[in-house]
Amino acid sequence: NAAIIDGKSMAEEIMSRIAFEVKRMKESIGKVPGLAVIMVGQRRDSQTYVRNKIKACEEAGIKSMMTELPDHCKEDEVLNALSRFNEDPSVHGILVQLPLPQHLDEAKILDVLSLEKDVDGFHPLNMGNLALRGREPLFIPCTPKGCIELLIRSGVEIMGKRAVVIGRSNIVGLPTSLLLQRHHATVSIIHAFTKNPEQITCEADIVIAAAGVPNLVRGNWLKPGAIVIDVGTNPIEDPSCEHGYRLRGDVFYEEALRVASLITPVPGGVGPMTIAMLLSNTLDSAKRAYNFT
Ligand code: NAD
User: Fold this and answer.
1) In this protein, which residues make up the domain named Tetrahydrofolate dehydrogenase/cyclohydrolase NAD(P)-binding (predicted)?
2) What is the pTM of this model?
């Protein structure tokens, strides 16, 4: 059976280091990092993610601010909220919770976000610098960074390994594949048009699943001893659970357990690590803004 990567306790370790650094910053210069969140609409999953992020800020001593806008708001309202946070020197990180409602132009909004405050790493210049050799992005997207952190903390050497990323979204799959290349893995990408994906995954030493399809990756898709990072967080209706649903990953966990050597659970794997990376990016940004080392 595979060993389980305990993302929750790894994230807690990082969070306590961040809390320590925030305290040190406050004591020596009287400032704390600030994170601003812009949320449009009332998607239940987005609300949960945002709530968790804000709670984590509180625990770490990071100041958080939130602007909530209605589903039908105008693009200008989002851009105005964004400009205010761009100009506010007590804000070091700005997060526009995605996805935005259909009528809003996500690209236009992300273009306006200050590069220095783009703690999600979704600004095209940060993403471009992530893709280009010899350049360094100011911020690396949180979920991809969290996946790599989980691998490194589990003692996995990435260099020279065959990695497969399932999914190519701007926020997870694409930056994860770029980041794995930075760590010198040989990377294949699987997406909705890929034929016979199992033939590709079964050659991989490292599989990172981010398709948003519950139980997509079966046990027989995996090479024995593979390392599996499951990004998927798919709600499955279950009246016996507290909120009426439970979370299921993109990997058929029970089957994969028998084949893989290391695996992340859902929940308790990538999710907590993503939040830890967000706070870490916010702390770095504040340190950069105040020239605090
Ligand atoms: P998305 O819908 O934007 O992208 C999904 C990608 O998967 C697309 O590139 C698509 O081509 C590919 N895909 C879809 N069906 C496929 C199939 N049958 N076979 C192969 N590829 C397929 O989703 P996203 O925003 O990238 O999120 C992916 C998953 O990760 C979701 O379950 C989401 O909830 C989860 N997620 C988790 C975290 C976290 O912190 N744990 C963060 C972000 C997203």
Assistant:
1) 141-289
2) 0.97
